[in-house]
Specification:
Layout lengths: L4 H26 L8 H4 L4 E9 L7 E9 L5 E4 L1 H35 L9 H45 L5 H14 L1
Antiparallel strand pairs: 1-2, 2-3
Amino acid sequence: MKFNTSALIWTFLWSLFMGVTAIAIGFGALFPSMNLISKPFVCPNGKMDHVDQVYNPYPGTTITTITWYCIDSRGGKTELGIFPMSLYAGLIYGVLLFLVIIVGMAILGRYGRSRSGIGDTGESVSVEKAEKFRRQTEQFREQRLAQIENKSESSRDALEKMKELKRLREANLISEAEYQSKRAEILKEL
């Protein structure tokens, strides 16, 4: 399967961005344990844990904050910032998201090829359909040009008839009523 390099790069960058913002920060706020994936990077020699703090500053208002800590082997707690933890977790999730997208594109690509008639050789049965469509388009174009040519001939004939009719009227060989009647007939033929 062929991939467009530019599209792959943009998909990879988008996946990293979504991994950090949507997955690590967004879903990480809903499911804090998801961010434990960043432990080897932000807390390599200790245990990573979080504490939920719930506040009610005003009646009917509840605020929940999550604070992450790295607990070393002696029991010392070091508060972790949200950005390094989210960045590491997000990059991991972004790479995983990118791999899921690539696998999905490969599966859909194979499925799409099998549905469109592309065989193992990579040539498509639709080449015949494209040739047939090209021939039909050419025939339609030729027919349309012939119709336009016929209309232009009938327009030229009508123009000649109108000129002759005008000369007859100017020479007073026909009445105004006859002129108007014949003129309407010529216009209807167009």
